[in-house]
Write a sequence for this structure.
């Protein structure tokens, strides 16, 4: 049994906490309002982005730590507070802990490739906007912390409560650009991947978290429309050269996490969204 701290214990963090608890670990969840945490998580009430934090808020003997905070709005200041200020405070809290592995959760948005090329952990990143720039700085902060650190760059996370694409199709507002790829991972697999990495003896410093099948967004929308039995009203847009240069477009290869023995429960969007649509229909949330 190990003691594990999860900073930013929201939906993904709680799913991870459940898996760790089931494996016999003791989990401490850091968030501003810990009253919403499940009973098996020890809540730690703290605003990590605040100017002053209680660095003694954690108990002793924390061996693993996850940083899964997200900004509360899409602005450079919010990103800096969430990923830089909050992470610095969390690292300060871990300074005298016997940390075996520190995990920082990032995003595949740091990849700037725009021609549909294949991308993996060895591919260069590009600070093409403030979000990518802050995330790249935050990743460096994790690696330079002095802790044994692993960064996980997740693609688009979907699943229960994360139904944006389904909502767009149902509302008739779905639009996509031809030949532009999307990369995603089901939230269940995202949590399973993080729990899997905790159990590796010597995980690498970087992993991408995406399923087996990068797919053109137009294809995903069309498939969803068929599953939902709604008119195919997808707005296909031909991207201009300027748009192509500004928008990331890549196919992400997940061979590194696969090589560790990790198996996806939802290897493509069809399994994940298929189950999600079926569940929403059975619950009467869509008709």
């Amino acid at each position: 049994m190990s003691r594990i701290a999860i900073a930013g214990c929201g939906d993904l963090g709680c799913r991870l906490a459940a898996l760790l608890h089931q494996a016999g670990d003791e989990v401490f969840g850091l968030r501003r309002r810990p009253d919403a945490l499940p009973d098996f998580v020890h809540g730690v009430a703290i605003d990590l982005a605040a100017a002053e934090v209680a660095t003694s808020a954690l108990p002793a003997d924390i061996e693993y730590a996850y940083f899964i905070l997200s900004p509360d709005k899409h602005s450079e200041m919010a990103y800096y507070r969430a990923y830089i200020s909050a992470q610095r405070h969390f690292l300060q809290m871990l300074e005298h802990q016997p940390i075996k592995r520190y995990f920082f959760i990032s995003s595949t948005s740091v990849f700037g490739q725009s021609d549909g090329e294949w991308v993996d952990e060895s591919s260069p990143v590009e600070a093409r906007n403030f979000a990518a720039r802050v995330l790249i700085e935050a990743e460096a902060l994790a690696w330079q912390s002095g802790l044994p650190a692993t960064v996980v760059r997740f693609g688009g996370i979907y699943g229960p409560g994360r139904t944006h694409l389904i909502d767009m199709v149902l509302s008739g507002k779905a639009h996509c650009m031809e030949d532009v790829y999307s990369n995603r991972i089901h939230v269940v697999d995202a949590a399973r991947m993080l729990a899997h990495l905790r159990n590796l003896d010597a995980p690498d410093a970087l992993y991408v978290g995406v399923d087996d099948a990068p797919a053109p967004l137009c294809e995903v929308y069309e498939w969803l429309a068929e599953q939902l039995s709604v008119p195919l009203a997808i707005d296909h847009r031909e991207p201009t050269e300027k748009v192509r240069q500004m928008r990331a477009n890549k196919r992400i290869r997940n061979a590194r996490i696969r090589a560790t023995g990790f198996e996806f429960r939802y290897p493509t969007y069809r399994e994940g969204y298929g189950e999600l649509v079926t569940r929403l229909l059975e619950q009467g949330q869509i008709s």
